[in-house]
Amino acid sequence: MHRRTPMIVATVAVLTLATVAPATAEKNLVEFGGGVHSSRVYTVVNYDSPSDSAATQVRDLRYGRASDGAFVGDWDGDGIDTLMVRRGREYFVTNDPDPTTGADYVIRYGDADDRTYVGDWDGDGTDTLAVKRGRAWYITNESRPTRGADYVIRYGNHWDAPRVGDWDGDGTDTLAVIREGRFFVTNETDPTRGADYDFRYGNAGEWVEVGDWDGDGTDTVAVVRMGEDEAVLVAQDPGSANLRIDLDLSHMDDSRETWEYVVFTGDWDGDGIDTYGYRLGF
Predict the structure, then answer these.
(1) pLDDT category, 14, cuts 50, 70, 90?
(2) Signal sequence: where (predicted)?
(3) What is d(CA 118, CA 164) in angstroms, rounded to the nearest whole number?
(4) Residues 31-63: pLDDT tens digits?
(5) Do 50 and 213 meet the contact criterion of CB atoms below 8 Å apart?
(6) Disulfide: which of 50, 82, 179, 215 matches 273 by Cβ 3.0-4.6 Å?
(7) Predicted TM-score (pTM) of this structure
(8) How much helix, strand and coil, in percent to the nearest 5, is found in the chain?
(9) Residue 211 pairs with which residues in a beta bridge?
(10) CB 249 within 8 A of CB 263
(11) CA pseudo-torsion sign 267, 268, 272, 274
(12) Please, which residues have CB within 8 angstroms of residue 244's CB and are 6 or more apart in sequence?
């Protein structure tokens, strides 16, 4: 799944590993924005490569309502991530990278109070929905589901903070959960045992994003740091260092604080590399 100014300056820096706490109210995991101070403007940023990440394009998208919760995914399998917004149990999907009209179609799935997640659960290149109730996940592989879940899995605990990604590069998204500062990852689409492995990353209270930052087909996590002195995304790398990307905030409202924005990720141009975007989110 592609979660996938001046300028963005990319450097490589070693990150001391520490505890990562779940984001408040699961903000910025999959569904983002939609609060009383949210906006219908989504700023997305492209750059050529993670090693030379000066912004090549920064553009504002307008879609849905300010009160909508939003998701990013590849809904039609063309390799480009686009937006979907949620109103209760209805999801308004656009396949247009720069939407100028309403939704291409509307789907209904789950209940209005479900926690909803997005992934390519069967490896067909198209992202679909899953809803979480307690520790049960109700997964559909249909882009336009007309019935209930295709199957149900159980993983983690009710209070875990989940992430979705292709952790082993096999083309299929699976789950990870954050519990007491530790990530527990499974590569099974229908896990019948515990995690395949676990790790720690980042600092307590930081937002965590998932993406394929270098285009190698494997997703890793990144932490987002938005403060007075820095606005960066620090992405996990299998090597000894981590990719640090200073965020291009040129399209932010000068009257708002950086912490009022949520950062999200996606592949906006279909090049196989996930970059980022941001939205006024609270």
Answers:
(1) very low
(2) 1-25
(3) 7
(4) 888 777 789 999 999 988 777 777 889 999 999
(5) yes
(6) 215
(7) 0.87
(8) 0, 40, 55
(9) 220
(10) no
(11) negative
(12) 10, 11, 12, 13, 15, 232, 233, 234, 235
Structure-token pair, residue 131: 């809803």
For residue 109, what are its two tokens?
Answer: 């799935």
List CB contacts of 236: < 8 A, sequence separation 6 or more. Answer: 201, 220, 221, 222, 242
| Amino acid sitting at position 2 | H
What does the pLDDT look like over 188-234, one tens digit per residue?
999 988 999 999 988 877 889 999 998 999 999 999 998 777 788 88
What pairing do the DSSP bridges indicate for beta strands 261-266 and 242-246?
unpaired
Phi then psi for residue 259, to 5 deg, are: -70, -10
Q: Which two tokens stand for residue 120?
A: 């390519």
Q: 80: Cβ–Cβ under 8 A, 6 or more apart, which residues?
A: 2, 74, 97, 267, 268, 269, 270
